[in-house]
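[Automated response] Your request has been received and processed.

Submitted sequence:
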Amino acid sequence: MKMYKDTYQKWLEKAAEYKQELENIANDDAEIKDRFVSDLEFGTAGLRGKMGAGTNRLNIYTVRKATAGLAEFIMAKGESAMKRGVAICYDSRNNSKAFAEECANVLSAHHINVHIYDDIRPTPQCSFTIRHLAAIAGIMITASHNPKEYNGYKCYWEDGGQMSTTVAESLAKIIEKIDEFDIKMPTEAEKQEFTHIVGNDVDEAYLEAVLAQSLRKGGNLAITYTPLYGTGNIPVRAVLSRNGFNNITLVDEQIEPNGNFPTAPYPNPEKDACWEEAIKTVENANSDICIATDPDGDRVGVMARDKEGILRHFTGNEIGIMLTEYVLSHKKLPPNPAMISTIVSSRLTKKIAAAHNVAYFDVYTGFKNIAEKELELEQNGSHNFAMGWEESIGYIVGTYARDKDAVVASLLICEMAQECKDNGKTLWDYLDEVHYKYGMRNEVTIDIVREGLEGAAEIKGIMEGFRKEAPTVIGGVNVISVTDYSKVQNPANVISFELESGSEICVRPSGTEPKIKFYFSAVSREELERLKGILCL
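Generated structure:
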């Protein structure tokens, strides 16, 4: 019998909570193999996968296993680290609260203090809470904007950023050795002693930290807002209201938390499909702008009317360059200010930063890399962080948290739109001004989804193909340089192409979803369409 079948049998015998689910797949070898041929990999983003029984799924046993590893890692740091404890937050997804409670139980059993909220909170508030309470680590139960079948386990370290590669690799080695069916669970006395509910004072401190980033008061801007059934509802509405934005219409169908996401099966504000209900509300309310935050409240998408009154959707890059210009133009910047973005985000950002005498740093994709760079700058004392963002609609201003925050981004986007309205302009006019001032780039990201083991193999084959025989011409334009980031000092699975025209293309597999991503930054709309047609058939 193959090894994955042995593992299946072990689970059938020991995972009583999933016995029926496991019996239902007894005659489906492909499904058994998919669930048990490997473990859900613990990486720098923690764990993320479909929920269900199996070592390659997120369930109470894989959550306990990861947390037991984290407990051992913290215990090795000594009693002080154990007392500082772990902050735990969770979003509105199915099983998120149950998984968070499993984390709390395992940590309590190891006599590590737990700081857990009594209800859903956005991902950036987890980062804030670690810093505010001086916790040694944090856990956020979320799968961000994935479909309802998914959940995840994000792990943070004491600076409030996601774990560095070095820390995550060390932790992963500990987790590998743990038997998911042999994990210490707490007595009631241990639960009482080591589990602490985070109070409303921390909520208030978080809101005040967000409002401290405000650059002007609100006004009569007509806003439609949807949290897409997630965690943004309370904090986003609170900061907007406190700052003077009172003309807010809610997308009623999507306000209450619901992990099934009934009207937005793929609750990602980057995608047009999740905006259908919001657009209806905008048109009925005649709003100027619509904002949508994803279920865990770390990403924000924006639609706004142009001068003809037509509602149009901004890309993450377009929001990013507008926010960069707005924040750097209005904010009282610290000495030696710096901003950080990613190699796949808009190439205009560096130009805007330079115009405001702000140092610019490029990092690999993923907000953990932005947080790592911020920590490095803090530790070496060279620069003071002002803001950071990435093209996948994630933005942060200020140092109160070290992850992207849709709450502060929503506030600043509405402030920016209010300033435009006060001056008789739209956000689209402001984008034109930014392009006129710094130059035009036609930038878009294309995702190609490939599910399952076969899909993973196909994505791997695409990357290997580019490495073995990189194209010399793309869309009729000569390639003048190819950078394979897997071969540099700090490697990453990314390949970039610089074209003779000045256009650039980056290709990378997603680290959290079954897809390969193509990032285009083209010198003209015509060239963009030609490049997309060649590479994304």
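Summary generated for your ticket: The chain has a mean pLDDT of 95. The longest strand covers residues 150-157.
If you did not submit this request, please reply to this message.
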